[in-house]
Amino acid sequence: MAHVLAYTSPARGHLFPLVPVLDELRRRGHTVSVRTLAAEVDALRARGMAATALGPAVEAMALSDWRGRGARDSLRRSVGTFAGRAPLDAADLGAAIDRDRPDAVLVDINAWGAMAAAEAWGGAWAAYCPFPLPLSSADAPPFGPGLPPARGPLGRLRDRLVRPLVMGTIARTTLPPLNAVRAGVGVPPLASADDIYLAPPLLLAMTAEPFEYPRRDWPSGVVLVGPCDWDPPAAAPAWLAEVRRPLVLVTTSSEFQDDGALVRVALEALADEPVTVVATVPAGDPADFAVPPNARVERFVPHGPLLERAACALTHGGMGATQKALAHGVPVCVVPFGRDQLEVARRVVTSGAGTAVRSGRLTAPRLRAAVREAARRRREATVVAAAFAAAGGGATAADALEARLLATRRAH
Prior knowledge:
Elements lengths: L2 E5 L4 H4 L3 H9 L3 E6 L4 H5 L4 E4 L2 H5 L10 H30 L3 E5 L3 H10 L2 E6 L22 H34 L9 H4 L4 E3 L16 E3 L22 E5 L8 H10 L6 E5 L14 E4 L4 H5 L2 E6 L3 H9 L4 E3 L6 H11 L2 E3 L7 H12 L2 H14 L1 H19 L1
Parallel strand pairs: 1-2, 1-4, 2-3, 4-5, 5-6, 6-7, 8-9, 8-11, 9-10, 11-12, 12-13
């Protein structure tokens, strides 16, 4: 059996989808160690993993993209955070490799320095991506603006014209600082934005078609494993047993992005609807909201028990929260605020499993209508849930790691 060392960025939305993969590796007899958020170390140790905390300086570098004035400035700020963390997480992973002497390393795609350190190490390594892959494809629109998939010659012409503009901006913003990080650990520079996702010998993409756009040109190193849904073990809240009306779950980002407007407008929009609203604000303060009688605002409630009762999930468009709802067959209304959320929202609409409202056009009447329409999409959400289940989750990811990384180690 092998020893696998996993390394995450300081984000619960990037740790939680990894847990089912690590659980499955342990179930198969492999030893697992993890470097991750300090607050989650005890929970992972309780699952039998040798968990240790990221360096505090890595966790201290929070995203500031929500302060950006426009998409380009937000991208620049995100890149600044990832590049700023990179020398720290490269050294952090390098020290963990020296200490743990793993057989294989599995790295979060957003940990730029750790990715470069894994490549420089020279051993078996892979990456995982819990958001939509921004890879160029003849079968998908240019990534970022949330464009609908092309239809006919005019749509394909649109993609050919827009793709260089979008990908050029991403490359000019991302590659110089990323290649500076790579030079610091002695690995070659990347030539294009796509190469970020092509550099790992194996990339686990935590989604599945048809929620992700079906493509004929997936690279051979990419394996779609489904969303790998997981929440920390927690009992359902006692008050849930008293809820009699259909439930609407409202989620905001676990990494602060100033998306509290979603909760405020949702509470207003649904105050007179025959539903119970439960909003979670993990990066906010529940006391900031005026809560009507049919609603609750909590910092954290396990989503699983709520989704078993939910008629609709109203999300900020985070990939984890959105796919978690769909994996339960719950239709979604998405209000994207930034990051990859325009792309998540578009996939929800394209799959037919829900609706979307632009955050800049967020009003109570508009949101109320969108939630009502989303709640009618249960059948489509169930189709997506079946596709996610068929993708295999942690078992498929473990199969890929064993076949492509650990089998090679044994052969050598």
